[in-house]
Amino acid sequence: MQAFTRVSGVAAALPHANLDTDQLMPKQFLRGIDRRTGLAEGFLFDMRFEAPGRKRRDFVLNRAPWDRAVVLITGPNFGCGSSREHAVWGLRELGLRCVIGPSFGGIFADNCTRNGVPALTVPMAETERLLALAADAARCEISVDLERQTIATPADGRELRFEIDPLRRDMLLRGLDAVGLTLQYADDIRRFERDHLAAQPWLAGG
Q: Has residue 1 been placed in a domain?
C-alpha cells in the first residue's frame, strides 16, 4: 500500500449527508476483486454519469478544476451502509488521496486506512468552512500533512489541527495494511507457534 505523509492540491466539495457505500460503488461494479480494473468509473457512478461513458456536466468531479481533485470534503456520515471495500478502491483509483468530513461510516473509515486513504474527522463548523473553500474554484487548494496532523488552506491563511487514532496514523505513514502490520511480528508469531506446539505436541496431529 502506498504510504501517506502529505498531499497538496485541489479539494472538491461533496456536502451530501448519508451517502452510503451502495451509492459510492453501485453493485454492478462488484464483479471483480482487482482494485485497479475500472473502479474509478464506478465511484459515485449514478451521480457522475447520465449513462455509461456520458458524464453529467454539472457534477463537481466532472468539472475543472475539481476533475483533478486529490481531497474530498464530505457531508456527515459519509460511507455509511454496507462494508464494500470497492468503494474505497474506486475513490483511490479516481485519484482522491484523502477524505475530510464531520463523520464517516465506521467500516468505510477502516477500509480507507487499509488502503492508504486518511478519513479525517473535523468539527462541523470546520467542515462547513472547508466545503465553502472547496466549492470556490479560486480558493480550493488544500494541503493535508499527516505527520504534523494539520490541514492548511492557503486561500484564507488558516491551519487546522486534526486528531487521528495513533495506530491508523502509523499504518498510513508507513504504508502498512492489516496484513503488513501483522507481518512485522512474523518472528514472534513463529516463535509462539513453535513453543506452543513443543509444550502441547498432540496439537500437531499426525
A: no
